[in-house]
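Task: fold both queries, return tokens.
Query 1:
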Amino acid sequence: MLPYSYRKTARSLLIVLTGILISVVPAGAKRTFEPVFNPNMFVSKTQAAISIDGNLDDLGWANASRADNFVERSPGDMTEPEVKTEAFVTYDEDHLYVAFLCYDDPAAIRATMCQRDQFYGDDAVAVFVDTYGDASWAYEFFVNPYGVQRDQLWTSVAGEDHGFDLIWQSAAQVTDSGYQVEIAVPFASMRFPNKDTQSWKVDFRRDRPRESFKQYSWAAYDRNEQCWVCQWGTIDGISNVRPGKGLEILSAVVGNQTGALADRNDPDSEFKNEKVDGELSLGGKYSLSSDMTLEATVNPDFSQIEADAAQVDVNTTIALFYPERRPFFQEGADIFRTLFNSFYTRTVNDPKYAAKLVGRTEKYNIGFLTALDENTPYMIPLEEGSILLNTGESYVNVLRGSRSIGEDNRVGFILSDRRLDGGGSGSIAAVDHDIRLSNTLRFDGQYILSHTGEPDDGSATEGLEGMTFDSDRHTVAFDGESYFGDAVIARIRRNARHLDFHLTYDHVSPSYRTEVGYDPVSNGRRVQFYSGYSFWPTTGLFERIVPQMYLSRKWNYDGTRKEIFNNFNLNTDLRFAQTNLGMAYNFGEQTWSGVEFEDLWHVDFYVHSRPSDAVGFSLDLEYGKSVARFALAKGNETSAFLAFDLKPFDRLLIEPNLRYTRSTHEDTGEELWKGYITRTRFSYQASKGLSVRLVVQYNDFNERWDIDPLLTYRLSSFSVFYLGSTYDYSNYIVGPNDQTDLRLSSRQFFAKLQYLFQI
């Protein structure tokens, strides 16, 4: 590699030559801006080394291919950007290299020094790559002006998966003329066809948040084309490279010490500290071929380092849904997704072991997962709610496959089976499709058959005797019954520059169950219609104005009308402080527990805004008349949500939020419920790897505080050290006068060292 002084001289010569070329253009000439749809770029192999340090003076960039005709895709409609952006692409045997030069006023750049995946609302650049070119899934790599990474996996079924992680390199620096970014993505981290020469769908994007959140891209987009990925550009010329192969071992050592009141209901009981406990977790991933990966884990550490955000469930009769954060489920997560939540990975609750096979070829995707779950959650869906039980050990198997047909069309299937150790099973077989009918019109759907074999041990359902479903054909209690069920969803969707509409039919039969999915209610048929029309003013305060209508009708299988729901709303985007403003009016009626509730309505107002890099906020207010399900009454309900995103300086984030709800009986004025949940997250990034985080949460409904401090040192996406604790405080009634006292009810200290070995 040449000395730094030579590299700097070479780059200076390039800048001088560029200036000479510009100077020969006639003084009065004006370049006509033309957006380029589906651009093409030929990429050549670099002849010199590239160091990912945020400087672009390596000779390896000298012959890189260049993209500079960026367009403003949002809020402008393929207009010329206010500032210039350039992207450079090259590769070697091991890496795809991308660099950006983003010209701007450095004082106006917005950036946060934070953990990977944690920045939103920053200036950033992005590389999007569809290696198979069929618009079914794609990689997304984002980098902010401090070099902080964010990666996601986009799929045509579920959109963007924010929990997806890969190992790659990035660096950036702010300069006198803006900022610049370097990216290196190892081919070993990617999946792509095993061919001598690659042809990939790619786009380069720049996010520039100011008064509006502006997006510039290399590829121009037609807002009357529903397929986002289909409109990307193409890069050709990458040759003689191979996707990831080899062995990865993810090891973790976890130690913890817990303590709790011997009787959680008695504050005067002894606080008992358990012995220090520790265990080893081991996982491995092996690339059987360029298209097939096998992953297995024994005694996996599926603990979470941050408690789930509490949800208001005071008027909810269904089991709550929480996002998946466990690393084992990231590889191939897109393959297992369907329109129904036919595989909800958190139902694999506490596996003793698990293994997964994931494969991708040019046309086919395949995924298989097997696990022994030691603490099995069992959900019984009913017409107006669900019952969640624990049924001990079970064996889980899930097989998913799909095939791409042409560009942006897909058909697939999923099979799942859960066998309970004490007897009983739940299985489903389903097919699904997503068919492109035109540029703006799509038809997708999923069709499922289920079979349930109940356990013959009623101890798990003690207290549910006498409850029935499916017009009294079956009992809720476990008594060894066996039955089939089915579920369907079918949609016609139109998305275009102005007029959007969706028409959806779905049903879930009374006897349908999915033991590894999330379908918490049954016995319903529903028809839904949505339509919206987008106005795009070119001047004035409003960037976009969208009046919308949403109609829904639902019946049970006996023909009883369960719900009429009508929604009319107006959403707007402003050219001021990145502000979104909207209001809605909803009205309808509902039948609940055999009681008909008419004249239900509520009004909703919301505003989301980010006036500056240091302050952002969201406010949502609702008021109306709704069904109080447990009181079986109509209530006057008020709810509010307020959240702030505060950044006193670029390394400190403070994110408080408050959710409040109250309902009073329409006739008597009696208070049916009242409470709030508040949560604040403090994050300080001492360096790119070292961070401190504190979460403080109070749930007024159960009068409980959760306080979770955490120290993190991160070497890479998967190699990380955690040291933290959790404290749970509850309000107890004590003393002769029923005073309340806040006391520690449980506590845990933990340390976790996780390291990824790549062989």
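Query 1 returned. Query 2:
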Amino acid sequence: MNYNKKLLVAYAFLASVLVSCGGAPLISTPVENIDSSPLKVAELTKAEKENWGHLDLEKDTIPGMGVDRAYAEVIKGKKGKKVIVAVIDSGIDIDHEDLDGVIWTNKDEIPNNGKDDDNNGYVDDIHGWNFLGEAYDEQLELTRIVANGNVNAPRYAEAKAELDKTVTENQAYKTRIEQINTAFLQADKAVAAHLKKEDYTPKEVNEIKTEDETLTNHIAVLNQIYGFGLEDSKAAKKALNGEVERINESLNYNYNVNFKGRKTGDNPDDFDNNPGYGDGNVKPVKKSESHGTHVAGIIAAERNNGKGANGVANNVEIMSIRAVPNGDEYDKDVAKAIRYAVDNGATVINGSFGKSFSPHSDWVREAIKYAADKDVLIVHAAGNSSEDIDVAPNFPADNINGNEVADNYISVGALAPKYGSGMVAGFSNYGNKNVDIFAPGASVYSTTPENEYDTKGGTSMAAPAVAGVAALVRSYYPKLTAVQVKEVILSSGLQLTTKVVVGGDANDVQPFSNLSKTGRIANAYNALIVASKL
């Protein structure tokens, strides 16, 4: 999941709230008005923020995918075919109010009888399969390489150097973010006592009139933190607590060579060992395991039911495959997950995960080729390292040294919700050869466990947006092959020449067309029109 690269994003947060540590911003602010393209001046409304990925660049000046327009002008009155979309991710809350009606059920399996009724190798796989068992926290792949102790293993020296460097950086960051959190908690306590209320807004803080020097300093601390765009004291507490928790998880699990996360009893370095490992429980093991639920909602949250979010696609059944932990996924699990999805009827697979090291990448490439041979489309997130993945490796990948093993794979970069120079999300990877297209990925509103909703950002959110478009095309034009659906999506995207900030670095400004193979942003409206002509 590229956790080792998230430190750059974390430092951007840290830089914005440093008060007494003498820190300076490490990531530049995007410049405005790079070219003369029309910009949306007004801030997005609450409704636009929660639905921006479905809006239309031409009609709304927001770089969404024209989903609402597609339903209003193309799909209206038409009846599509059910499409199974496999979501290879963390656990999915299959009981969520906005997902419970779109979850795939294996009708050939009798629930909870302890038997493999359909003889597919998996016992009681009612809604998918869980390749992680009871585990969730896990090491990164580079940590596993170092922990194995084989100094002759491919890329060992590179992994060791990066691990040592990253641990040192994370420990420094842990110290600084804990200092900031302590300063915030002290300021929060003082201001709450002064205002005689636990929750308060930045406006209320700025309206405080005092000659008390200590209180004035506390107000300055809060204003620095609110400068990051946090709405109120409650949001600030959540953000800082989340950062403290995240950095501790990184050091305790992701970068800890002594941590043992796997609990399935198999050998992850032996592809044929212990077939059928894992279990049929596809739900999250804890509420914070929300990634898979969020991804599933982007694809298929029940549309227009009066509840929190709308998915891109109707006529979808979500097959839940739990294979992505709080750390790096195992190559064995990913390859098995792809094959499970293909063998059990999925025609679109979404993969919102990735990593920089992949000891058994051949297993995954073979699974991608297997999916291609069975006419299954795979949509994958390009990654969140702000890197050119034509140069820096990002796995899984559908190619060896640039030579594709199959033509059923779409790699997706992430857009932010404002057209113009800042349109490409600062965290998004890019690549003229290895990224195919861009889609809405920053600040995306979707489902989270226990009937809740939240906004998350990442290419993890951009991939399911495109997977949703693929599901729409396969639903309404079921005779098209996976290769044709890929071509429809790539050729129908909006081609832009806008100059954009790349990797969040204001000194790196390039034409948007440089950042992907197509130079386009995905568009559901166009895709359905192009598909109809095929």
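Both queries returned. Flag for query 2: The longest strand covers residues 83-89.
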